């Protein structure tokens, strides 16, 4: 016979419930819960929930009080059911496979797909090979730590799985074995970054020069056409030239830019995307994300010309749509790949035209023009990189010129402090300005190389007398 007798628990002598707000698959609910103890001395919990009203609590507290009362009533009903069935001492256990299913339900609700979903699938497959399918409460921190040591990227997905389980009440937060996982701080470096960063730095000046022109000339026909990507010139210039994150650039308003002192306040607000919808967040990615950065002379001039042309007001977004609203981050990412394809094809035609004029071999003989479908099918290479890699270009240039790590950290808004002296090291604005100007100089097109001279110019050089 099952024992259903209860005793008072942790101050809940009268079973007075506690109430909290939880987020269940995107829906906010009031959750009422109490802890009780069976005659066998085991702690148990019973809960009940009710939806949180859409009206703010300060505007209509009575509606919220009613919702809380409904949550308490649901909890009491569940308690009566447990007492009637005698199941208070036999809580259900949930296996790892069930927790993974719950994880996928949440990701599907959040509309996660594409490369992100593929990454999760690979990580979960690797975790499944190392962990048997048993109750989620049966895993120890040591057992999960062994998995994380072998697969560092699995730490994030394991924490997310247990977070969902705690939120659903499948396991107590105090019993979550992922709370004490030691997560390696080693940054992830993609193979494409290691292989092609120098190529990207070499291509960036020409790309920015092409973006800076409102109209482009077809190298083969000589016809002029409107450059529809010119409107994004200042945006991508700031990403490459200052190492700003995509959400930081999109969150800029004209009041953040100080043209007189050539500086900008970054990450006062950022534009993020949740469930396919762009929204404003009032702080950056980390505590150190909000920072005051100097502007190079070129970026300052480009932004000033943009503000004057658009008659921008202090509260206007620096980068805005035709309706005056901020851009959706994923839209800018799609535009970035279209832009790279258009520049690639233009540069190849230009390479062919120069070769015909000078009679010299092509600079990129293996490169051909591509269609959108062909471009999508190719991986990252010398001409193709992610929008986020623009930030890595700035970082790589500073590293190439041995800019002090503390200056790089301040410019990029990194939080990690890999050295104790970071607590006591403060960089000056002059140091940061020198670093920004150094990046800008590297991204500025240099004088044309001899391979770009015409046949007539080459003959003139050869015919010059030698006075040495």
UniProtKB/TrEMBL annotation:
PROSITE patterns: TYR_RECOMBINASE (PS51898). Residues 196-437 form the Tyr recombinase domain. This is Integrase. GO terms for molecular function: DNA binding. Belongs to the 'phage' integrase family. Residues 443-468 are annotated as: Disordered. PANTHER family: INTEGRASE_RECOMBINASE PROTEIN MJ0367-RELATED (PTHR30349:SF41), PHAGE INTEGRASE-RELATED (PTHR30349). GO terms for biological process: DNA integration; DNA recombination. It comes from the Bacteria. It holds the Pfam family Phage_integrase. Keywords: DNA recombination, DNA-binding.
């Amino acid at each position: 016979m099952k024992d259903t007798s209860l005793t008072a628990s942790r101050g809940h002598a009268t079973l007075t419930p506690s109430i909290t707000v939880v987020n269940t698959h995107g829906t906010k609910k009031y959750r009422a819960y109490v802890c009780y103890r069976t005659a066998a001395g085991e702690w148990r919990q019973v809960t009940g929930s009710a939806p949180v009203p859409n009206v703010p609590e300060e505007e209509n507290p009575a509606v919220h009080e009613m919702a809380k009362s409904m949550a308490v009533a649901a909890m009491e009903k569940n308690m009566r059911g447990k007492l009637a069935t005698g199941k208070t001492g036999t809580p259900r256990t949930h296996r790892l496979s069930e927790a993974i299913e719950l994880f996928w339900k949440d990701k599907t609700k959040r509309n996660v797909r594409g490369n992100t979903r593929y990454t999760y699938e690979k990580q979960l497959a690797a975790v499944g090979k190392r962990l048997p399918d048993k109750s989620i409460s049966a895993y120890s921190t040591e057992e999960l730590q062994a998995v994380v040591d072998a697969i560092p990227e699995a730490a994030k997905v394991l924490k997310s799985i247990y977070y969902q389980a705690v939120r659903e009440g499948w396991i107590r937060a105090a019993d979550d074995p992922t709370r004490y996982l030691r997560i390696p701080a080693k940054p992830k470096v993609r193979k494409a970054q290691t292989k092609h960063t120098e190529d990207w730095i070499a291509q960036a000046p020409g790309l920015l020069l092409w973006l800076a022109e409102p109209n482009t000339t077809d190298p083969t026909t000589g016809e002029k056409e409107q450059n529809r990507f010119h409107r994004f010139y200042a945006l991508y210039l700031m990403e490459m030239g200052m190492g700003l994150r995509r959400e930081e650039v999109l969150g800029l308003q004209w009041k953040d830019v100080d043209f007189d002192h050539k500086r900008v306040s970054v990450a006062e607000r950022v534009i993020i995307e949740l469930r396919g919808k762009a929204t404003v967040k009032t702080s950056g990615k980390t505590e150190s994300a909000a920072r005051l950065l100097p502007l190079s002379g070129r970026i300052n001039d480009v932004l000033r010309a943009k503000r004057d042309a658009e008659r921008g007001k202090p509260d206007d977004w620096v980068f805005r749509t035709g309706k005056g609203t901020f851009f959706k981050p994923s839209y800018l990412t799609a535009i970035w790949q279209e832009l790279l394809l258009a520049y690639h094809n233009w540069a190849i035609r230009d390479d062919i035209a120069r070769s015909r004029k000078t009679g010299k071999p092509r600079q990129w003989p293996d490169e051909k023009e591509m269609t959108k479908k062909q471009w999508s099918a190719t991986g990252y290479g010398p001409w193709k990189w992610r929008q986020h890699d623009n930030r890595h270009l700035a970082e790589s240039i500073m590293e190439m010129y041995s800019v002090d790590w503390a200056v790089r950290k301040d410019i990029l808004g990194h939080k990690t402090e890999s050295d104790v002296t970071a607590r006591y090291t403060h960089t000056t604005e002059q140091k940061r300005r020198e670093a920004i100007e150094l990046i800008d100089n590297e991204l500025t097109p240099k004088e044309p190389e001899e391979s770009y001279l015409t046949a007539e110019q080459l003959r003139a050089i050869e015919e010059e007398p030698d006075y040495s």
